[in-house]
Protein backbone atom coordinates (compact mmCIF):
# COMPACT_ATOMS: atom_id res chain seq x y z
CA UNK A 1 0.00 0.00 0.00
CA UNK A 2 1.43 3.37 -1.03
CA UNK A 3 1.91 6.40 1.17
CA UNK A 4 -0.88 8.91 1.53
CA UNK A 5 -0.50 12.43 0.13
CA UNK A 6 0.07 13.76 3.64
CA UNK A 7 2.77 11.18 4.36
CA UNK A 8 4.56 11.98 1.11
CA UNK A 9 4.55 15.67 2.01
CA UNK A 10 5.77 15.16 5.59
CA UNK A 11 8.42 12.66 4.49
CA UNK A 12 10.29 15.30 2.50
CA UNK A 13 10.09 17.82 5.34
CA UNK A 14 11.15 15.58 8.23
CA UNK A 15 12.04 11.94 7.59
CA UNK A 16 13.91 12.59 4.32
CA UNK A 17 14.89 16.23 4.75
CA UNK A 18 17.28 16.88 1.83
CA UNK A 19 19.89 18.75 3.89
CA UNK A 20 19.65 17.56 7.49
CA UNK A 21 18.85 13.88 6.85
CA UNK A 22 19.94 12.96 3.31
CA UNK A 23 22.82 15.48 3.37
CA UNK A 24 22.22 16.68 -0.20
CA UNK A 25 22.57 20.13 -1.74
CA UNK A 26 25.21 21.27 0.75
CA UNK A 27 26.95 23.62 -1.68
CA UNK A 28 24.09 26.16 -1.92
CA UNK A 29 22.96 25.36 1.64
CA UNK A 30 26.24 26.57 3.13
CA UNK A 31 27.12 29.20 0.55
CA UNK A 32 23.95 31.33 0.67
CA UNK A 33 22.93 30.73 4.28
CA UNK A 34 24.68 33.78 5.72
CA UNK A 35 21.41 35.74 5.69
CA UNK A 36 17.89 34.46 6.38
CA UNK A 37 16.51 36.42 3.43
CA UNK A 38 18.93 34.71 1.05
CA UNK A 39 17.96 31.32 2.47
CA UNK A 40 14.26 31.95 1.82
CA UNK A 41 14.99 33.13 -1.72
CA UNK A 42 17.12 30.11 -2.58
CA UNK A 43 14.59 27.76 -0.97
CA UNK A 44 11.65 29.18 -2.91
CA UNK A 45 13.58 29.14 -6.19
CA UNK A 46 14.60 25.52 -5.65
CA UNK A 47 11.04 24.57 -4.70
CA UNK A 48 9.76 26.14 -7.93
CA UNK A 49 12.23 24.14 -10.02
CA UNK A 50 11.44 20.98 -8.06
CA UNK A 51 7.72 21.44 -8.55
CA UNK A 52 7.91 22.22 -12.25
CA UNK A 53 10.34 19.43 -13.11
CA UNK A 54 8.50 16.83 -11.04
CA UNK A 55 5.18 17.62 -12.70
CA UNK A 56 6.53 17.49 -16.26
CA UNK A 57 8.65 14.40 -15.66
CA UNK A 58 5.68 12.62 -14.09
CA UNK A 59 3.48 13.55 -17.06
CA UNK A 60 6.09 12.28 -19.52
CA UNK A 61 7.28 9.26 -17.52
CA UNK A 62 5.76 6.79 -20.00
CA UNK A 63 7.03 8.72 -23.01
CA UNK A 64 10.65 9.51 -22.16
CA UNK A 65 12.88 6.59 -23.29
CA UNK A 66 14.83 4.97 -20.48
CA UNK A 67 18.19 5.39 -22.21
CA UNK A 68 17.77 9.13 -22.68
CA UNK A 69 16.00 9.99 -19.43
CA UNK A 70 18.99 11.77 -17.83
CA UNK A 71 19.53 14.21 -20.76
CA UNK A 72 15.77 14.84 -20.80
CA UNK A 73 15.77 15.54 -17.07
CA UNK A 74 18.69 17.96 -17.50
CA UNK A 75 16.88 19.91 -20.23
CA UNK A 76 13.66 20.14 -18.18
CA UNK A 77 15.38 21.12 -14.93
CA UNK A 78 17.60 23.67 -16.69
CA UNK A 79 14.53 25.21 -18.36
CA UNK A 80 12.75 25.75 -15.04
CA UNK A 81 15.98 27.07 -13.52
CA UNK A 82 16.22 29.70 -16.26
CA UNK A 83 12.61 30.73 -15.61
CA UNK A 84 13.31 31.09 -11.88
CA UNK A 85 16.49 33.05 -12.57
CA UNK A 86 14.74 35.44 -14.95
CA UNK A 87 11.86 36.02 -12.53
CA UNK A 88 14.17 36.78 -9.58
CA UNK A 89 16.35 39.03 -11.73
CA UNK A 90 13.29 40.96 -12.88
CA UNK A 91 11.41 41.31 -9.60
CA UNK A 92 14.02 40.87 -6.83
CA UNK A 93 17.28 42.16 -8.24
CA UNK A 94 18.92 42.58 -4.83
CA UNK A 95 18.25 38.94 -4.04
CA UNK A 96 19.47 37.99 -7.51
CA UNK A 97 22.79 39.71 -6.78
CA UNK A 98 23.06 38.08 -3.36
CA UNK A 99 22.50 34.55 -4.66
CA UNK A 100 24.96 35.06 -7.50
CA UNK A 101 26.25 31.97 -9.28
CA UNK A 102 24.34 29.64 -6.96
CA UNK A 103 21.03 30.58 -8.56
CA UNK A 104 21.79 29.10 -12.02
CA UNK A 105 23.53 26.19 -10.29
CA UNK A 106 20.09 25.00 -9.16
CA UNK A 107 20.07 23.25 -12.54
CA UNK A 108 22.64 20.74 -11.25
CA UNK A 109 21.32 20.44 -7.70
CA UNK A 110 21.41 16.76 -6.75
CA UNK A 111 18.19 17.12 -4.73
CA UNK A 112 16.20 17.85 -7.89
CA UNK A 113 17.80 15.00 -9.86
CA UNK A 114 17.18 12.62 -6.96
CA UNK A 115 13.47 13.43 -6.78
CA UNK A 116 13.13 13.21 -10.56
CA UNK A 117 14.84 9.83 -10.80
CA UNK A 118 13.60 8.23 -7.58
CA UNK A 119 10.04 9.55 -7.40
CA UNK A 120 8.59 11.64 -10.25
CA UNK A 121 9.54 9.12 -12.93
CA UNK A 122 7.62 6.38 -11.09
CA UNK A 123 4.57 8.10 -9.58
CA UNK A 124 1.47 10.07 -10.52
CA UNK A 125 1.41 13.83 -11.01
CA UNK A 126 -0.36 14.55 -7.72
CA UNK A 127 2.03 12.38 -5.73
CA UNK A 128 4.96 14.06 -7.51
CA UNK A 129 3.59 17.48 -6.60
CA UNK A 130 3.39 16.52 -2.92
CA UNK A 131 6.90 15.06 -3.07
CA UNK A 132 8.27 18.25 -4.64
CA UNK A 133 6.52 20.45 -2.08
CA UNK A 134 7.75 18.31 0.80
CA UNK A 135 11.37 18.30 -0.38
CA UNK A 136 11.21 22.00 -1.25
CA UNK A 137 9.76 23.00 2.11
CA UNK A 138 12.26 20.76 3.90
CA UNK A 139 15.14 22.31 1.96
CA UNK A 140 13.87 25.84 2.67
CA UNK A 141 13.41 25.19 6.39
CA UNK A 142 16.87 23.65 6.68
CA UNK A 143 18.43 26.67 4.93
CA UNK A 144 16.43 29.04 7.12
CA UNK A 145 17.56 27.26 10.30
CA UNK A 146 21.22 27.43 9.29
CA UNK A 147 20.96 31.02 8.06
CA UNK A 148 19.10 32.21 11.15
CA UNK A 149 21.80 30.93 13.51
CA UNK A 150 24.60 32.30 11.33
CA UNK A 151 22.99 35.72 10.86
CA UNK A 152 22.04 36.14 14.53
CA UNK A 153 25.43 35.08 15.89
CA UNK A 154 27.54 36.44 13.04
CA UNK A 155 25.84 39.76 12.28
CA UNK A 156 23.57 40.39 15.25
CA UNK A 157 20.56 40.72 12.94
CA UNK A 158 17.68 38.59 11.67
CA UNK A 159 16.10 39.38 8.32
CA UNK A 160 18.04 42.64 8.54
CA UNK A 161 16.53 43.64 11.90
CA UNK A 162 19.13 44.50 14.52
CA UNK A 163 19.13 42.45 17.74
CA UNK A 164 20.12 44.40 20.85
CA UNK A 165 23.55 43.59 22.31
CA UNK A 166 24.30 40.98 19.64
CA UNK A 167 24.60 43.60 16.92
CA UNK A 168 27.68 44.99 18.67
CA UNK A 169 28.93 41.68 20.07
CA UNK A 170 28.78 39.30 17.14
CA UNK A 171 31.11 36.48 16.16
CA UNK A 172 32.24 37.13 12.59
CA UNK A 173 33.32 33.53 12.10
CA UNK A 174 29.68 32.54 11.60
CA UNK A 175 29.49 34.68 8.46
CA UNK A 176 32.43 32.76 7.00
CA UNK A 177 32.71 29.21 5.65
CA UNK A 178 33.98 27.66 8.92
CA UNK A 179 30.96 29.06 10.75
CA UNK A 180 28.64 27.51 8.19
CA UNK A 181 30.17 24.08 8.73
CA UNK A 182 30.00 24.48 12.51
CA UNK A 183 26.30 25.38 12.47
CA UNK A 184 25.48 22.65 9.95
CA UNK A 185 27.33 20.03 12.01
CA UNK A 186 25.50 21.05 15.20
CA UNK A 187 22.08 20.96 13.51
CA UNK A 188 22.89 17.63 11.86
CA UNK A 189 23.89 16.15 15.22
CA UNK A 190 20.71 17.49 16.84
CA UNK A 191 18.47 16.03 14.12
CA UNK A 192 20.24 12.66 14.30
CA UNK A 193 19.83 12.60 18.10
CA UNK A 194 16.11 13.43 17.90
CA UNK A 195 15.45 10.86 15.19
CA UNK A 196 17.45 8.20 17.05
CA UNK A 197 15.49 8.80 20.26
CA UNK A 198 12.25 8.59 18.30
CA UNK A 199 13.26 5.29 16.70
CA UNK A 200 14.22 3.81 20.08
CA UNK A 201 10.93 4.91 21.60
CA UNK A 202 8.99 3.43 18.70
CA UNK A 203 10.90 0.15 18.94
CA UNK A 204 9.96 -0.19 22.62
CA UNK A 205 6.31 0.57 22.00
CA UNK A 206 4.11 -2.54 22.35
CA UNK A 207 1.38 -1.14 20.14
CA UNK A 208 1.17 -3.20 16.97
CA UNK A 209 3.48 -5.94 18.25
CA UNK A 210 2.12 -9.43 17.41
CA UNK A 211 3.36 -10.74 20.79
CA UNK A 212 1.99 -7.82 22.82
CA UNK A 213 -0.97 -9.76 24.19
CA UNK A 214 1.08 -12.81 25.18
CA UNK A 215 3.79 -10.61 26.67
CA UNK A 216 1.20 -8.72 28.70
CA UNK A 217 -0.29 -11.93 30.07
CA UNK A 218 3.18 -13.15 31.06
CA UNK A 219 3.97 -9.93 32.93
CA UNK A 220 0.52 -10.05 34.56
CA UNK A 221 1.13 -13.61 35.82
CA UNK A 222 4.60 -12.78 37.11
CA UNK A 223 3.29 -9.79 39.03
CA UNK A 224 0.55 -11.98 40.57
CA UNK A 225 3.03 -14.69 41.56
CA UNK A 226 5.19 -12.11 43.33
CA UNK A 227 2.21 -10.88 45.33
CA UNK A 228 1.96 -7.49 43.63
CA UNK A 229 -1.33 -5.80 42.94
CA UNK A 230 -2.33 -6.01 39.28
How far from one another are the termini?
40 Å
pLDDT averaged residue by residue: 86
Total helix count?
9
**Anisotropy-based shape:** globular
Helix content: 55-70%
Low-confidence stretches: 218-223
How would a crystallographer describe the biggest sheet? 2 strands, antiparallel
Largest sheet strand order? 1-2
Q: What is the number of beta strands?
A: 2
- Topology as a string of helices (H) and strands (E): HHHHHHHEEHH
| Domain count | 1
| Global Rg | 23 Å
Beta-strand content estimate: under 5%
Structural class: mainly alpha
How would you sum up this structure, described in words?
This protein is mainly alpha-helical and 230 residues long. The protein has one domain (5-203). The protein has 9 helices and 2 strands. The protein has a two-stranded antiparallel sheet with strand order 1-2. A hairpin with a 2-residue loop joins strand 1 (157-158) and strand 2 (161-162). It is globular, with a radius of gyration of 23 Å.
Amino acid sequence: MGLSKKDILIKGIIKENPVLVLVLGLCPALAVSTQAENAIGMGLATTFVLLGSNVVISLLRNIIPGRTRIPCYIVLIASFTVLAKMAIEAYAYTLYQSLGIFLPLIAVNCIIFARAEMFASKHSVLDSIMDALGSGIGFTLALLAIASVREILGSGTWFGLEIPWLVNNNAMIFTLAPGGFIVFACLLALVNKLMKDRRVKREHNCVGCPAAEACGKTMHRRAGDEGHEV
